[in-house]
Sequence to fold (77 residues):
Amino acid sequence: MVMNHVEQLLDAVRDLPETRVLQVLDFARFLKWQDEAKAREIIEFEAWAENLAKEKGFAHLSEEDVAYIVHEVRGEH
Fold:
């Protein structure tokens, strides 16, 4: 299915003048850059969170431990 979309895009681009092809290329590069930027943000956030956990001394806690603590603090049993 993806290949079909790629083929459709290639067919559409072939009929465009060179200036429009460059615009399509620029837009495709922008979309790729956006995806890469989002991936970098996720990696940076995870690194920040991990460092914070180490600094605060709770890096050893599991997600279940954290959920239990939150429920206890909120009075949810």
Remarks:
- Residues 2-74 form one domain.
- Residues 18-56 form the longest helix (39 residues).
- Helices lie at 2-14, 18-56, 63-74.
